[in-house]
């Protein structure tokens, strides 16, 4: 083992540190505009690099996020651009990067780390638990009627990407503030990521378009989408790729989706990364026509169990004692008493025994203790342990949702 882990100190080093993941994108490394866009939202010192002699062979970054959790917000590391060159795989380089990254989170007082996983099997060993389900839909336009007629809401208009941020960011913020899993978007994030329609982001699809619904004098919903026209013997077979569609009220959500599903020349509308409880399921006359499928969404790691639990709200009176096992971050390895009044270490008998991954699964409200129990992922040590834990942890918010892979 003659490699070492450092943090990057320049954009040039960042370029080298993300080159391992770019290998898997089929490229030697990022283009200038790609690394410049990344550097606008990822400070160099938040990107770890692994050196084998003079060469960087692995990299792992973490965005500085403010993550919405039930009843509040918490500082969180949004883990990204993790990659190890195929010449150096399975020598413990990822493990070393995870070590450095989680230690850095702890030092920066970021109690939570979270990510989208390229493969389900990678991150559990480092304490990440599956925390949300993401739904994908692929709906034929001609079978997309709603179950009931809806009067149009306000006015819908197209806006240029250059003007979009001021109009759509407040809608995002209103939704993000009450949706566990969503994070605060900075202006740099809007410009470098969400509204950036460079060729490398478009990947051959249509241009990014932005539509907003305005009601009572302000934007209340928006959609970012791409039209991909195609024909087969004169019949339209094109698709609408819905990148993101948000409304700040049920009526606004219904209106923006009606707009999208009614766009002409489209045979099918596709969206991925919807929350499992998206209202479309109940808005549609034929929900099965959504052709919905589910996959793992976010993976959450409580870096500091105490600080992470203190940052979220608990629903009921009473308390529960959880015996937490955490080999990778042993400072969490303890018995924790959790109640709406606070979280503390305790020596009292535990109601539940859980690996730290289970805490990641229940943290945002995406899974219940009872569900984890039925999958034999946690153990109930005292009667009614799951019921009492779920009374405390169970969400009153919508299901966790992060509309984008970061
Ligand atoms: C996934 C990847 C980062 C792993 O890096 P690595 O340096 O080979 O991983 P390590 O050698 O540190 O492995 C640590 C442990 O994870 C396991 N592991 C690593 N990659 C795995 C995978 N893809 N699936 C299942 N287990 C994996 C190893 O077997 C090892 O297990 P152990 O602790 O029981 O010995 C690397 O293969 C890669 O870059 N893959 C393509 C890009 C990618 O998927 N990145 C993640 C983006 S979210």
Task: Explain what this protein looks like in three dimensions.
- The protein is an alpha+beta fold.
- 28% of the residues lie in helices and 33% in strands.
- Helix 2 runs antiparallel to helix 5 (187-194).
- The model has no long low-confidence stretch (mean pLDDT 97).
- Residues 21, 24, 82-84, 89-95, 117-119, 121-122, 125 line the site of coenzyme A.
- Coenzyme A is lined by residues 21, 24, 82-84, 89-95, 117-119, 121-122, 125.
Strand content: 25-35%
Bound molecules: coenzyme A
Q: Overall 3D geometry?
A: globular
Widest beta sheet: strand line-up: 1-2-3-4-5-16-6
Please tally the helical runs, counting DSSP H or I stretches of 4 or more residues.
12
Distance between the termini: 31 Å
Largest sheet: 7 strands, mixed
Mean pLDDT: 97
Strands, total number: 21
Helical percentage: 25-40%
User: Class by helix and strand content?
Assistant: alpha+beta
Keywords for this structure?
406 residues, alpha+beta, seven-stranded mixed β-sheet, binds coenzyme A, 21 strands, globular
């Amino acid at each position: 083992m003659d490699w070492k882990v450092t943090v990057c100190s320049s954009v040039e080093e960042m370029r080298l540190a993300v080159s391992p993941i770019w290998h898997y994108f089929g490229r030697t490394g990022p283009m200038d505009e790609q690394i410049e866009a990344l550097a606008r939202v990822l400070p160099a010192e938040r990107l770890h690099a692994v050196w084998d002699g003079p060469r960087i062979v692995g990299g792992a970054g973490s965005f500085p996020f403010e993550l919405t959790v039930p009843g509040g917000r918490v500082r969180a590391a949004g883990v990204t651009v993790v990659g190890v060159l195929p010449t150096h795989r399975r020598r413990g380089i990822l493990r070393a990067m995870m070590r450095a990254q989680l230690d850095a989170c702890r030092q920066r007082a970021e109690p939570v780390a979270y990510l989208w996983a390229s493969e389900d099997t990678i991150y559990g060993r480092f304490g990440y638990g599956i925390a949300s389900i993401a739904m994908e839909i692929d709906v034929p336009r001609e079978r997309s009627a709603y179950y009931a007629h809806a009067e149009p809401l306000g006015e819908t208009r197209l806006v240029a990407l250059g003007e979009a941020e001021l109009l759509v960011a407040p809608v995002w913020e209103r939704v993000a503030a009450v949706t566990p899993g969503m994070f605060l978007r900075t202006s740099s994030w809007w410009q470098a990521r969400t509204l950036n329609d460079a060729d490398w982001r478009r990947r051959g699809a249509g241009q990014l378009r932005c539509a907003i619904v305005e009601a009572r004098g302000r934007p209340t919903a928006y959609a970012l989408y791409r039209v991909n026209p195609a024909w087969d013997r004169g019949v339209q077979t094109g698709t609408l790729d819905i990148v993101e569609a948000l409304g700040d009220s049920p009526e606004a959500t219904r209106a923006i989706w009606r707009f999208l599903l009614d766009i002409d020349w489209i045979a099918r509308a596709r969206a991925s990364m919807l929350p499992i409880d998206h209202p479309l399921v109940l808005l549609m006359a034929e929900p099965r026509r959504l052709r919905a499928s589910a996959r793992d969404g976010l993976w959450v790691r409580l870096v500091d169990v105490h600080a992470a639990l203190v940052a979220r709200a608990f629903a009921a009176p009473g308390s529960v004692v959880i015996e937490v096992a955490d080999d990778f971050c042993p400072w969490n390895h303890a018995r924790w008493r959790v109640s709406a009044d606070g979280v503390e270490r305790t020596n009292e008998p535990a109601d539940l025994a859980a690996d730290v991954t289970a805490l990641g699964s229940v943290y945002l409200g995406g899974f219940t203790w009872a569900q984890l129990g039925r999958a034999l992922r946690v153990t109930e040590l005292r009667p009614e342990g799951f019921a009492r834990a779920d009374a405390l942890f169970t969400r009153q918010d919508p299901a966790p949702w992060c509309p984008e892979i970061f």
